[in-house]
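Researcher: Here's a chain I'd like modeled. Treat it as a single chain, no partners, no ligands.
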Amino acid sequence: MSDIVLRMEHVYKMFRKGEVFNSLRDLIPALTGKMFRRQELSESDKREFWALQDLSFEVRRGEAFGIIGHNGAGKSTALKILSRIMKPTKGNIIVDGRLSALIEVTAGFHQDLTGRENIFLYGTIMGMRRREIASKLDDIIAFSGLEDFIDTPVKRYSSGMYARLGFSVAAHVQPDVMIVDEVLSVGDYMFQKKCVERMKEEIRNGAAVVFVSHNLKDIAAFCSSCLLLERGRTVISGPTQEVLSNYLKRFRTIGAGDLDRSPVTISKVTVRNEDGECLRFQSGERAWIDVELRAHSRCTKLSLSVYITNSTNEGIFDTSTERLGHGNFTLDAGDVYHVTFELTLNLANGIFHPSILVYRYDTQTAYDRWEPAAAIYVSSETDVRGSAHCFPKVIQQTIRTASDSELALGAECSLGPDLAPQGSPS
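Model: Modeled as a single isolated chain. Structure tokens:
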């Protein structure tokens, strides 16, 4: 048996932009032109666009494979072709085994049926037999957490309830390949965590997972390999860390304007732990950020800043070589400057973006900026929220029975002084 359970081979998908005729006056010339082949080929070409071009990849058993890219890159089109909702214009898709897909919240649901009835409907669409669905019904309902609403028509469900029900069915198909789109983003934190654990369980059982998300932290934590799409084409495919680094470099913003005229530019930024370049860290772990600058002409009174933002682009940390007591520095044309910042990552679970700025304080001049310079993914064994991790501990916890006087005082406080029982303490 081959280890490869899913393969896309040179897949293309073309769409044609629709023609809109608002009157008979517009329709007749268009039909006449087509009949006598008077339309120019260039006009036809303008109505056609390729959503996918020469897309090829393969996924092995027990592997989590990520697909990333900005909106419109072709991710959803690829997943719809994989799940056989669409047919490719050219190319082949090979799936060795049962495929389970969750790519749209309401896909496969009938609005007027109850949650219980939709489990049977959606399970049948997924390729399960009625007897198989019935045997797993209790487990599916328990996983979704919708016991109190399972006999309610799904048209009254929220988007989060849709996601719960849909994923719960898809997760119990026992697939060889599971396809999961951004749909999980509508679920609450605890349900997302449960879904990730379920996908990891399926992977341990030999299934493959194709995971599409804009949450780079989830991609980094979950997927061993990854593919970056841009305008329907593969930019890079390989180890997740390498692909994410490439993605950040392509969409990095430069703050210095025309770098051809900037006297000094950033040439390299590396984030590492004790073992080398790294994107995944444990809370409290030390990290080193290596920065290299190149001077193109003489530049004086320079300072190098490092700052960190969280996933919502809020600044959570900021310092510089000058504020750390090292003063400013001067570079002559051809000089290469190296500096290493050491940080202790007292950060909570999340994705964080270190950025680098070359700056002159007295004239408030920004010469170059890498924003972000990288993305780091911090995890913690302690369930804490926010950005900072204060490493909390519960050091004492007691329970005792309240005395009669405390109970009486509590009753007086809840009733108010005017409504307190006669004879109660004043």
